[in-house]
């Protein structure tokens, strides 16, 4: 429970957690380590590692090892499938894509990956993963029945189902590189239903104002990935986002 406790305590103390997502398939392990180092300098709270395609195997292990050489922050797996498990990480978001049409993304990959998680000894943090339109690559790969942006009640129903199934975290995802995150109304409705359960919001958050709106609506944790990959000043960009969302 160490990483989950760490995240929850930051949310409690500072109002919000900032997570930096790095896709091992997007750059070399050395470049990923440099990004993680710069993100840590900017004040991010933990590094998420994963992607929908090509984010497993040796590249995944090497990316985590290189990041661990340069920072002490927790490394949390954000797997696209059972191949996204690595013993080098500290924890894994053990997630089920609740609105997938494909049983492999609801329980199949989880069954294949669970013994690997058990053997590796990494911490599993249970998470309901819910994809909102447009959904991007992860929506396509995960065969998600995308929740319309203007239907918060459907997102609430899925979030409550996840909570009642015992999942601790809920992730509202619009897809990496989306034009924006879930709407303030959807975030607020879901957080209201979740109560003390943690709400993560990600997809298309690129600036302080957007991040702040998510937090004011009820997000406990904010994920940014694309903006970190695209900027020439990772530390400055993360600092901008972090200062907008922390108490
Ligand atoms: C994707 O929600 C994350 O799974 C992050 O999205 O790449 O758009 O920041 P971005």
Low-confidence stretches: none
Using only C-alpha atoms, the radius of gyration works out to 16 Å
Strand order of the largest sheet: 1-2-3-4-5-6-7-8
Rough shape? globular
Describe this structure in words.
The chain has 247 residues and is an alpha/beta fold. The protein has a single domain, classed as FMN-linked oxidoreductases (TIM Barrel, Alpha-Beta Barrel). 47% of the residues lie in helices and 17% in strands. It has helices at residues 2-14, 29-42, 57-70, 103-120, 136-141, 152-164, 184-194, 208-217, 226-230, 234-245; strands at 17-22, 46-49, 75-77, 91-97, 123-131, 169-173, 198-202, 221-224. The protein has an 8-stranded parallel beta barrel with strand order 1-2-3-4-5-6-7-8, surrounded by 8 helices. The longest helix is centred in the middle third of the chain and has 18 residues, at 103-120. Mg(2+) binds at residues 23, 52.
Layout of helices and strands, plus pairs?
Blueprint: H1 2-14, E1 17-22, H2 29-42, E2 46-49, H3 57-70, E3 75-77, E4 91-97, H4 103-120, E5 123-131, H5 136-141, H6 152-164, E6 169-173, H7 184-194, E7 198-202, H8 208-217, E8 221-224, H9 226-230, H10 234-245
Parallel strand pairs: 1-2, 1-8, 2-3, 3-4, 4-5, 5-6, 6-7, 7-8
The structure holds SN-glycerol-1-phosphate (1GP).
SN-glycerol-1-phosphate is lined by residues 21, 138, 173, 176-178, 202-205, 223-227.
GO cellular component, one term: cytoplasm
Keywords: Cytoplasm, Lipid biosynthesis, Lipid metabolism, Magnesium, Metal-binding, Phospholipid biosynthesis, Phospholipid metabolism, Transferase
Subcellular location: Cytoplasm
């Amino acid at each position: 429970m160490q990483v989950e406790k760490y995240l929850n305590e930051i949310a409690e103390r500072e109002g919000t957690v900032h997570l930096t997502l790095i896709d091992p398939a997007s750059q070399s392990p050395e470049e990923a380590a440099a990004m993680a180092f710069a993100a840590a300098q900017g004040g991010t709270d933990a590094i998420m590692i994963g992607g929908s395609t090509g984010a497993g195997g040796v590249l995944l292990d090497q990316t985590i090892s290189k990041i661990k050489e340069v920072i002490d922050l927790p490394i949390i797996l954000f797997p696209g499938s059972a191949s996204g498990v690595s013993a080098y990480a500290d924890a894994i978001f053990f997630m089920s894509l609740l609105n997938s049409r494909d049983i492999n993304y609801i329980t199949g990959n989880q069954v294949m990956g669970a013994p690997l998680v058990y053997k590796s000894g990494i911490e599993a943090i249970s998470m309901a993963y819910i994809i909102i339109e447009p959904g991007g690559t992860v929506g396509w790969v995960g065969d998600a029945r995308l929740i319309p942006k203007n239907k918060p009640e459907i997102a609430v129903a899925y979030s409550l189902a996840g909570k009642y199934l015992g999942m601790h975290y809920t992730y509202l995802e619009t897809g990496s590189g989306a034009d924006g995150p879930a709407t303030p109304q959807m975030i607020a409705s879901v957080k209201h239903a979740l109560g003390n359960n943690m709400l993560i919001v990600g997809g298309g958050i690129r600036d302080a104002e957007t991040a702040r709106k998510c937090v004011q609506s009820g997000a406990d944790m904010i994920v940014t990935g694309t903006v970190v990959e695209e900027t020439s000043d990772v530390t400055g960009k993360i600092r901008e986002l972090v200062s907008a969302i922390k108490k």
